[in-house]
Amino acid sequence: MNESVPTEPFRPADDVTHHVGYLLKRAQAALRSAMDKVLREHGLTVPQYATLELLAQHPGMSNADLARATFVTRQSGNVVLRGLQETGLITRPATADHGRARPARLTDEGQARLAAVQTAVYAVEQRMVDAIPSRRVAALVADLERMSEALED
After folding, report:
1. Could you tell me the CA-to-CA distances from 12 to 7, 18, 19, 22, 140 in Å, in that order?
2. 110 pLDDT exceeds 60?
3. Per DSSP, what are the bridge partners of residue 106?
């Protein structure tokens, strides 16, 4: 696919509420609010839910890896893990086999809680995606990936 190259550099809209960054933040805030609402009914926060999803896909992730993947600091990630462990949703060894990493895994209860909440969370995402024509979703996902990569160091 041959994409045209703009002849002029991008200039943000005069109204800050029409800037790409502002609109991305607005969409993220709306998504977070909708997710908070459905997760609250299941006794979870967004970081806790994201941690459960990641551990279901990648058992044994370390605190540092989970914190990075859930967009929180290591310290906040550790608080999330402790909370999930105290409620019986994950398990971690008391001590590290090597280094400082204490790999986390979902318990049966954690898997059940995740399964119970996934339908509600996926419905939130579907509401968001349904707002655009289905033929544009793949391009949107690709564009968002490229935008993120362009800003990463």
Report:
1. 15, 8, 6, 10, 19
2. yes
3. 90
Residue-wise pLDDT tens digits, 72-98: 999 999 999 999 999 999 998 876 666
HSE-CB of 143 using CA atoms within 13 angstroms: 8
**Token duo for residue 48:** 């806790």
Q: Give residue 90's identity as a one-letter amino acid code.
A: I
- Residue 69 pLDDT level (bands cut at 50, 70, 90): very high
- Going 16 to 17 to 23 to 25, the CA torsion angle's sign is positive
State what percent of residues in the chain have pLDDT above 90. 76
> DSSP states of 38-95 as a string?
HHHTTT--HHHHHHHHHHHHSTT--HHHHHHHTT--HHHHHHHHHHHHHTTSEE--SS
Spatial contact of 87 and 52, defined as CB atoms under 8 Å apart: no
d(CA 89, CA 100): 21
Cβ atoms of residues 38 and 120 within 8 Å: yes
Longest Cα–Cα distance in the chain: 59
Tell me the C-alpha to C-alpha distance, in Å, between residue 34 and each of 66, 69, 127: 22, 20, 10
Given this model, what pLDDT does residue 11 score?
A: 75
